[in-house]
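--- STAGE predict ---
source: upstream dedup step, 1 unique chain passed
mode: sequence only
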Amino acid sequence: MYLYEKPVKKSFENSHILLEPLCLKHAVNLFNAASEDPEVTFYHMFFGPFDELENMQEWIMKESMDTSKFTFAVYRKQSKKFVGTFSVSEIDSNYGTAELSSIWYATSAWGTETNLCASYLLLEYFMEKLKYRRLVWKCDDTNTRSKNAALKLGFKQEGVFRKHKIIKGRNRDTAWFSIIDDEWEEVKRMLENQINNIM
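--- STAGE serialize ---
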């Protein structure tokens, strides 16, 4: 018996973005997206770059079989392309908490509506539908782009765990951000205003 409803793996969609549960049918499109500027795209990630399509297929199989998290392929309607992946991990239905994680996009999708609209779909699902108490965003403290993205979405920075992880041979200080249920209505209005102003 869980205190909070367990999330269901399904597709999410709005007028700009489609999120589909990740599977092998996405491999070719995601490999192409990952190949735009792989060293930059995956510098801060625990996985990637993907040198061969087979590497992407193996990673997708591993992700799709991991029952501890949900990973989605992100389809950008304006470009008519799958442009990256987005995960929800650390899902705890006893405490109503989860983490938006392992987010990457093709560099051509950077600075577009992609992350705003994809994030909103999942924030709304967990905070509005499932009534979760807390959603987390973590990233390398040197990843300025990710930290700025979190703040733009309404996450508040909580602090930094020093030497928290090792990533590709480098020490990683991890910056922590969160949105809690008390803040959701204000954050929701802000995000919807941003989405409504997309040209």
